[in-house]
Amino acid sequence: MKGKPLSAPAPVLKMLRLAVCAVLAGAALMTTAGAAPQAKSHCLSECKPRIGIVSAFGAEADILLEQTQKKREWKINGNRFTTGELRGNQVVIVLSGVSVVNATMVTQLMMDHFRVERLLMSGIAGGVDPASHVGDVTVPESWAMPMEVYWNGDGSLPAPCGAAGDVSCLGVKLAADNGKPRPDFKFDTPNGPVSSGLFMRDNFVMNETNAPQGEFRFEFQADPEMLALARTLKPALAKCGPKNPSLCVSVQPELRVGGRGVSGSAFLANPGYRAYLFDNLQAQVVDMETAAFAQVAYANRVPFIAFRSLSDLAGGNDFKDVGAFFGSGLAETNEASVTLAFLEAWSRRNRR
């Protein structure tokens, strides 16, 4: 004979329900109380206010790390973050590795795990402006990613959404100058220029101020306050690097603040494209990390600045002193000198 499930009397069931609710409410209260400090501080590993410093090459970061005091290392997803004090500032330093993807990933990782109130990129790059020289240190006012492109079949303006230049139905936007799409890159041939169909695009970016619709931006502005301080610096830049003092540049390196920097996923070894960047964007310098780093800074609403020392003229051998970089370590030495001078001046400014 099949039995029926036993049921408890109504009063007992009511008491059980009240007990369960009380337990769940208590658990929820404990969870909320435990999570509140982390949610408020927005830092997963350490919540001390710091300047975040990102470098792509080991040689760039090593000079800064040697000068850092009271160091502590943190291993996060295989990346080594070093906290400490550098020229009077509380800092966290990380080596990102080369490429826009690495720079993006590691910079956001830093933002998530530490309380970064300002960001600084320090490293070497290729020159775009032919008036620049090996060993110069550039501090651009803005950074763009012109290799984010719409690749059309020819040099005509793409028109997939109707009007020429309208690509909005695809969720993208062409980069414009004074309301007109920027021209595509053209290859030089014996028969004249040939269109590549590569048209620059704006980047889509979203943060708390523009969500949920987000916005399209071609470039990201460095912090005006930090740029103003950089313009006051008078660093002693070397003509000969420490690795081989017999290799020296013929022109005294200078600190250049202003203009536009550009980044891309390609290692630029094309003088024609370098000329295109200079002619159309007046770009001063090109690398593979800073514009991505700048977009992360913008998305997190954190002020940033970037110092880049020139190793060569990107995509060409027309810097006659290019061997001085590769043989002597001149570029990273000058870049570190400017970075350290800036940090010292920033510390003095804050103490006042």
Automatic annotation (TrEMBL):
Keywords: Glycosidase, Hydrolase, Signal
Full protein name: Menaquinone via futalosine step 2
The keyword Secreted appears for this protein: no
InterPro entries: Nucleoside_phosphorylase_d, Nucleoside_phosphorylase_sf
GO BP: any one term: nucleoside metabolic process
EC assignment: 3.2.2.9
Transmembrane annotation, as ranges: none
Gene3D superfamilies attached to this UniProt entry: Nucleoside phosphorylase domain (3.40.50.1580)
Keyword Coiled coil attributed: no
Organism: Collimonas fungivorans (strain Ter331)
Class of this enzyme: hydrolase
Source organism, top-level taxon: Bacteria
Signal peptide range in chain numbering: 1-35
Nucleoside phosphorylase domain ranges (all copies): 50-325
GO molecular function: adenosylhomocysteine nucleosidase activity
